[in-house]
Amino acid sequence: MIIEFRIQNFLSVKDEQILNFEADKTDKKHSDYFVVNAGQYSLLKIMGIYGPNASGKTNILDALQAFRSMVGSRGLNAFVSPVFFAADPAYNSSHSKFSLDFLVFNSGHYVKYTYTVVFNSAAKKIISEKLAYFPKQREALIFERTLNEEEERGFTLKVPKSMNLKNADLEAMKANTMNHMLVLSCFSRLNLIFPQAKDAFMWFQSVLPPISPRTSIKSAKRWYDESPEGKKLLLQFLKQADLNISDIHIKKMDEDIAEEILNFFTLTKDIVKEEFVKEIQSAESELKNNMMRRDEFKITNYDVNLMHTSVTNENKEVTYSLPLLTESSGTQRLFDLAYPLLLSFIYPSVITIDGIESSLHLEIVKYFILTYLSNSQESQIIFTTHNLLLLEWDVLRNDTIWFTNKETDGTTALTPITSFNGINRQKILKQYLAGAFDALPNPRHFKFNCDALIEEEIQRGRRTERGRRC
Questions:
Q1: Which of 76, 187, 238, 443 is the most buried (most CB within 10 A)?
Q2: What global pTM score does this model have?
Q3: C-alpha span between 246 and 317 (Å, rounded)
Q4: Which helix (H) or strand (E) holds 37?
């Protein structure tokens, strides 16, 4: 579980911003639902971020996902372009920083880890990397890496003798770490006997891929097809959302798409950046080898149909089937959200959801949040939202509410609601709309002079003089 996440010089974040999951010890409201007691820490299971458009809400989620991606095998190559704060030239060449305090459950108790990475996304270089843990409430270094151009690998790597790391494993770590890669990422390729570091690497696997309004979670279909109990819970979740769904049919299909994939690779090589071309060429070569071994290359897909039951005017019950793709965007969205929700019940995980209310009725958002809080054990959700009624309906505790505000220089300021005085839960929506917490858009000048645009359209012959007033 996350204790605290610190971000600096990343997209709209200029100076260090902090997202802290420690529960307010003075707030006892629904603690059984909102708080996980993990050793000496009381951590929140959910965090909602409010703020105006373009204030950086999504960038806070993206920062955590960027950290997760960096721990993967591609390192800084996971970034298509530099991710520094662009509005200030002084920050364009300076370093970015991610730092995370998190808990790992091991041998019956929780251990705190701190992982800090300083990097330059423009130069594609890791400047420093430090992993420490607190096995007996005191900090102990696991490893530390610093940039050193004079070294053969371009960096120095320090591992204390207390870690009992074999020289062969240490040399393997060095050999598998490039300047653009993290030391921790070598565990994606090597099976090293270094449990302290590997536990931290495995923790990052609990951070699930991001969920945005456009996300379609295809892996969910396979899971439901292979898990009868998972499918049963999915059906219960959709039924209780009052979607008039009585059953779900999932059909596994093998489709021939070899030629289409090869065409895609051919087209993609012409438009992607250079660093991806080698990976695409490798995938294309592998696919061709598969085709040489077999007459055709197949991919598994899943056809999902939702069964609906209704009652006619003659009081007869009628059941009919609709493909998932023809269902409303809200039903599809809830189907997609159900997968990480159910995973959070059985696996401790960290889930980021951008625009949680996208395509969903406000009551359904409330249903999703309360279902999560009632059933998850040691998972955490961070979501962004413009759903102000969640404040008025008292769905969230004060310590779970954060705001982003865009400062005059374009930077994102991240602030918990608990830092404001005079919070009144009965009038919190009015307080927010009155500007008590900042984090409000300020649109103005509603009237536009359209005469020049209308004249231009008339000159192009696409509009007549008639009805020219805007």
A1: 76
A2: 0.87
A3: 12
A4: strand 35-38
